[in-house]
Amino acid sequence: MCVVFVHRAEKTEVLSDDLLQIEKRMELVRQVSHNAHKKLVSCLQGQLGTDTEKRQKKLPLTALSQAMQEGGSQLGDESMIGKMINACAEAEGKLATELMQHEVLLERDILEPLNQLAEVDIPNILKQRKQLAKLVLDYDSAKTRWYQAFKSNNPTMAAKVDSLKDEMDEALNKVEICKDQLSADMYNFASKEGEYARYYVLLLQAQADFHRQSLAVLETAIPTIQIQQGSTVPLFEQYHRFVVVLKM
């Protein structure tokens, strides 16, 4: 880094315009990722961080399936409603499994990376930025002390020029080391924007797969239920004719 001494009020700038733009973008990406993570978590029906069995037990669909199973057992298979509700209970249980697996995938492939980006990776780089700013202030202070001693006519001050020069050089070295590491991390972040954007594509793909699997469960269950329902149609017809006779 080339340093030009003008006067004591000079402030050393160490980041290029490109890096300053990346810094602004990082803060924006951090906020956007944080908000997306928060809202996506609120869409989940299961509990984050729990194993699959516990997660599925807590799903509303699982509770619905269990309630239907209990109702079907109470009504019995000889009852039309009992048959229908048992068949629906099985389908709802399969839908709960699909939902659980979907949410586990979201947590692993999307929520965890987003949280890592927003709460760990970017904050660590921004922490380095603050450290660099502090080191720059230390360097500017050391530079000012050296410059004042260098220009002073005071013998006592002049005697300190060499030691103050060493302090300034040491402070500058710390700035350079921190700046190099920060620059590398910031450019690395910028190079991975495509990877970060992919999280949102994965979200849509995961949702599409989930809906396809859920639809497959329903499309398998409905014909079976309709067949069972068809076997009971004569009962409906008998009841309908009975009602019509009563009204005549």
Automatic annotation (TrEMBL):
InterPro entries: AH/BAR_dom_sf, BAR_dom, RHG17/44/SH3BP1-like. GO terms for molecular function: GTPase activator activity. It comes from the Eukaryota. It holds the Pfam family BAR. One of its GO terms (cellular component) is cytosol. GO terms for biological process: regulation of actin cytoskeleton organization; regulation of Rac protein signal transduction. It is found in: Cytoplasm. Keywords: Cytoplasm, GTPase activation. Residues 4-248 form the BAR domain. This is BAR domain-containing protein. It comes from Periophthalmus magnuspinnatus. The lineage of its organism: Eukaryota, Metazoa, Chordata, Craniata, Vertebrata.
